[in-house]
Amino acid sequence: MALLNFRKRDHAGFEPVNRDVVSLLQGYSIEVMPRTAAQIGDFRALLPEGTRVYVAHIDGTPIDEMVHTARRLAEDGFAVMPHFPARCIRDAAMLADWIARYQGEAGIDQALVLAGGVAQPVGAFDSSIQLLQTGLFDKAGFTRLHVAGHPEGNRDIDPEGGTTNVDQALLWKQKFSTETDAEMALVTQFAFEAQPLIAWADRLQAAGVTLPVHVGIAGPAKLQTLIKFAIACGVGPSLKVLQKRAMDVTKLLLPYEPTQVVAELAAHKAANPQSNLAQVHFFPLGGITTNAQWAIENGGESARPAQLS
Fold it and tell me: Most exposed: 1, 222, 243, 262, by fewest CB within 10 Å?
């Protein structure tokens, strides 16, 4: 049984906090977009000092807005990791310009390198591997490079289903991680069931992919909002968890919280410390403030940059 301690939540009294969950939430990261970040007056009032904040690049967002958001967050003391979506980058010159701007104007030295959700590439790149092969991140001295993981598969990469191409790409990235000085990790798409995530991470380790896994978790949100985003983002079998909940009229209007999936992941990590499930990455689909408050109530306020992995 997980050990419990207690923290004051409100005037109603004390609520138990699962220590395994507190441990898993140490060093959690969170994703923002420029337009949502602009609505937050002070991130320092919401997030632990040094939190890694990913700046998501949505197709059509000007690079000026991306760099401005990254600079603001960096100046507030956060570890900022902008997205570099291959299919939105025209050529090596454009990639070099983005790297130089993030580095020169915001002091950024880390990146999430991914293919991106655009159906048709705008230029020469259509995969994260191609961006990594340019050597431009290494040349710029980026100290950390994260890449995407897809526990439920990705039909953009494996159109017929399955995970053959995704698995081959991960093996390539594992090998690449031994050839670069940058620290690397896998950041997954969000899912709503713990066991498939655990099985996927275990399968990767058995295949020789030992990169730390930062598990994507959808933050608290209205059920309808989550279902919309899950379908748009290609979430696979775990979507049935939301669909089942939607059929229960007593729960339909209640906000979803990731309490159960996080608790199950935390219990597995506590029982299997050798697991490559390293930490949590939040997608704040119900709002940054709502997600940050949930993390605080579950012990995430004690995360510190030294515990980032």
Answer: 1
78-94 per-residue burial string, b: 16 or more CB within 10 A, e: under 16 = bbbbbbbbbbbbeebeb
* Virtual torsion, Cα 283, 213, 234, 144, nearest 10 deg: 70
Is there a contact between 266 and 4 (Cβ–Cβ < 8 Å)? no
Helical packing angle, 223-232 and 239-246, nearest 10°: 150
SS3 assignment, position 150 = coil
- Is the residue at 241 inside a domain? yes
Comparing CA positions, the residue from 221, 199, 225 lying closest to residue 287 is 221
A 10 A CB-CB count for 180 gives: 14
**Domain harbouring 144, CATH code:** 3.20.20.220
Distance of CA 53 to the CA centre of its chain: 9
Flag whether 4 is in a domain: no
Domain of 42, in residue numbers: 15-301
- pLDDT-derived band at 259 (thresholds 50, 70, 90) equals very high
Q: Where are the alpha helices (DSSP H) in the chain?
A: 19-25, 34-37, 63-75, 92-106, 128-133, 136-139, 164-177, 194-207, 223-232, 239-246, 259-271, 288-297
Read off the pTM.
Answer: 0.86
The number of domains in the chain is: 1
Model confidence pLDDT, tens digit, residues 204-220? 999 999 999 999 999 99
DSSP3 helix / strand / coil % (the chain, rounded to 5): 40, 20, 40
Residue 94 within a domain? yes
Does residue 3 sit within a domain? Answer: no
How many alpha carbons fall within 13 Å on the CB side of residue 72? 19
Q: What percent of the chain has pLDDT over 70?
A: 79
Closest CA to 92 of 139, 141, 56, 125: 125
Q: How far is CA 140 from the centre of its chain?
A: 23
